[in-house]
Amino acid sequence: MMNLREQRCVVVGGGAVAERKTQALLEAGAKAVVISPSATAWLQERSEDNKIEWVKRRFRKGDLAGAFLAFAATDQEQVNADIVREAKNTGIPVNDTSEGERGSFITPSVFRRGGLIVAVSTSGAGPSASRRLSREIEERFGDDYERYIDFLSAARALIKSRVAESSQRKHLLRLLAEMDILTLIREGSFQPWSEEALIAWIDQYRGNCE
Ligand SMILES: C[C@@]1(CC(=O)O)c2cc3[nH]c(cc4nc(cc5[nH]c(cc(n2)[C@H]1CCC(=O)O)[C@@](C)(CC(=O)O)[C@@H]5CCC(=O)O)C(CC(=O)O)=C4CCC(=O)O)c(CCC(=O)O)c3CC(=O)O
Ligand SMILES: NC(=O)C1=CN([C@@H]2O[C@H](COP(=O)(O)OP(=O)(O)OC[C@H]3O[C@@H](n4cnc5c(N)ncnc54)[C@H](O)[C@@H]3O)[C@@H](O)[C@H]2O)C=CC1
């Protein structure tokens, strides 16, 4: 999972596909720049609210300078090819929405439950199938996972800040992963642990590693 926070990501094109890729970038905290003479209402609104930067013109050579990622999302095959070439020549990872295999990465169908992120990809074979499968899996994942991930996150941070010795740390992180908290959450019998309870647990088990 790549950290896109505050990274400049350039989407070329302003149609439905560009909108979808931009939405995913905003969810990931990226700085999205859209280059296109036209844009969907959704993109225009985000531009007016300064959530994205909209460069209202056609793509020009040099537009990808300083980009962390690029997306070729115009309906012009040749323009998308030019974007991919410029990105590859300048070492910028590029997603080609019109010809998946030509780009350097493709985007999966994604859903989130708090800190849990599930990505489904068919490697380009059938984007609609990815979407359908993702929705099917999503129905099976309730809020219980969000609570579980919150618990893991708090416990892991505390273990890392309190236990410097690597074999002890490893032992505790493994014990943490093995605890069946999810079942407790589902049964409704899980009480969130206080920081004191977590510290007591760490102190109880840290010495037990072989
Ligand atoms: C290779 C890839 C490259 C990339 O874009 O990263 C790619 C490429 C292409 N998509 C095309 C068409 C459609 N794509 C969608 C939808 C999605 N496409 C996504 C990803 C990917 N699409 C990557 C592969 C991922 C994988 O295989 O798993 C999703 C999962 C994620 C996202 O877009 O971020 C998102 C669902 C998001 C969600 O809702 O969950 C729909 C459905 C719709 O719009 O309702 C259609 C119309 C129906 C159809 O054609 O099936 C075409 C043909 C264009 C033409 O007509 O020529 C190409 C070109 C080609 O095949 O190379
Ligand atoms: N990867 C995916 O998920 C999907 C990909 N596609 C592909 O994506 C392409 C775009 O689809 P839509 O967004 O629906 O098309 P669209 O026609 O709604 O939008 C195309 C956009 O590209 C812009 N554009 C055209 N020439 C440009 C240039 N020289 N510089 C900058 N922007 C330019 C237009 O102004 C318009 O905003 C399709 O042609 C198809 O190949 C289509 C469906 C899904």
Automatic annotation (TrEMBL):
EC supergroup of this enzyme: oxidoreductase
Catalytic reaction(s) noted: precorrin-2 + NAD(+) = sirohydrochlorin + NADH + 2 H(+)
Highest taxon in the source lineage: Bacteria
This protein's pathway: Porphyrin-containing compound metabolism; siroheme biosynthesis; sirohydrochlorin from precorrin-2: step 1/1
Enzyme Commission identifier(s): 1.3.1.76
Keywords for this protein: NAD, Oxidoreductase, Porphyrin biosynthesis
Gene3D superfamilies attached to this UniProt entry: NAD(P)-binding Rossmann-like Domain, SirC, precorrin-2 dehydrogenase, C-terminal helical domain-like
One Pfam family from the record: NAD_binding_7
Name the UniProt record assigns to this protein: precorrin-2 dehydrogenase
Organism: Paenibacillus puldeungensis
